[in-house]
Amino acid sequence: MFAGEAAYRDLGLDIVTYVPNGHPWQKAGRQVSPAHHRWEMTKLAVQDIPYFEASDVEVNRPGWTYTIDTLEMFPVDDEITLILGADAARGLPTWQRAEDVRDRARIAIVPRPGDERRDVDAVIAGWNYVWLDTPDVYLSGTMLRKRGRDGRSLRFLVREKVWAYIREHEVYRDGS
Fold this sequence. Notes:
Rossmann fold
């Protein structure tokens, strides 16, 4: 959430839309938490923040979900900023139709400890991107899921309503 806040404030965005993956192609063959849980947690996370919203466009899309398919839903003249962690940004050239993603969106990159800016810069040279000025905190979905699977508390790492949902539905207890 702090990355969305930073992008909203620092880049002057009108709104930040959170889009949980439906069937992420990068995780083919791996167990992921069910899409309906990801959707519910996303709705709870953005609740009561007027400049955040949630979209279920990828959750409802059949088959593998690709960012370019979502980007193409917007009018071509819309200014789109895609917020990614440095780890994801480093992999951008491998994405489905990467050149089209590059042409459709500015990338706002969240620094991650262990991901050197110069390494990411080298991989996405020529892309329209900006580094967000965020605290040097390693907080990612991967880390949160691992903590949840390990039975460790996520309280104060996610919004209170999301933490309650995770506990009530034992979202990460099944290894996802």
